[in-house]
Amino acid sequence: MKTIKIGMIGFGTIGVGVAKILAENRNIIKKRLGAEVELVKIADLDIITDRGIALAEGVLTTSVDEVINHPDISVCIELIGGYEPARTFMLQAIAQGKHVVTANKALLAKHGDELFLAVAQKGLSIGFEASIGGAIPIIRSMREAFVANQIQSIEGIVNGTANYILSKMSDENCDFDSALKEAQEKGFAEADPTFDIEGIDSAHKIAVLTSLAYGTPVPFDDIMVSGISNITADDIDCAREFGYRIKLLAISKYDGHSIDIRVHPAMIPISHPMANVNGSLNAIRVCDDLMEENVLIGHGAGALPTGSAVVGDVVEIARNILHGIGERVPAGSFQNNEIKSIPLKDISEVESDYFLRFSVLDKPGVLSKISGILGNHSISIESMIQKGRAGKGMGVPLVMMCHKASEKNIQSALKEIEELDMVCEKANLIRVEK
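Predicted structure:
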């Protein structure tokens, strides 16, 4: 029986998961593939720490070259994350004629076009299912299952850390800091959670999905990104009263002319399936001309869910190797000569419903002044909540749900409102996705 030999760069959480799956599920893989998959080299800076898995002598090395230049390795897995040296390692592996697999959404968001071109020129394959949504097969769906579909929009809860925090705040009435601390204690959040809570990780993922959906390069730095660190318990409570839950959404919408792509906290109706995707779960909603909508839900992170996606890519590439073929499906979903630049819509042109929370002095005339400014900017109020009373000189929450308006108008109005003496602090804005 033929053996497909693979190497791996990086032996952290996901790498350990991959190694365990290949060892413990060896027989089921062999039965489905018709060949053995053997992990022959793993490169990592730390080869001393016990990961709880037995490896054959000589598998671990601190030299990446031993993986990249190994004559028997057909598939190289990159699991170190970040832009560099991950990019360099992958390009070197491709130059050596090796197929590549990665879970690195940041690298793909910034340098995916370069990597896709490199494998195409060498007649090789690249697998990156694990880069978005962990075990959710969204990449395979976008590139194959939805191949005949004109995709119109993508909405995703694609960061488990942010979703865990917002779920804890919603379900257990705790504040942001307490929810974040618990997420870190349970291993759902990194010691430095900036990329997760500020939306950067989600932006990496929606950039990749947008490229696959519409066949366009996406300038990552042009994506509007806002995180969840300003969300308070008051916002959560008010959302509940209005019939919504707050989620960190990655959004991409194509109207045939330009792409509206952004990441920010959003209120979605409690009745929507994605509103009830809680904890560290991920969900991705794809709308198109054929199936109206399709919602994929699953574990978006973790050693085994993400590891299973990596192994799935390895096995798919192994099938290609066994049949003597290269990239069966274009890495970027579209044929290379069909990939065209589509302009991104400026955030000022986007229209949405809005939730606004002000802290204002408790005195007559405040509501009329604020509503007057909103009206002057063509913004109408749908409903309002004013909570409690305050001592002299202290602010009270004034909460409004506004009908659809342009981002340009809402930002102009807020700038004017925040200059009022009766407004105690910067307003909190949350967009509403109905």
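Summary: The chain has three domains: 3-134+303-338, 141-299, 347-432.
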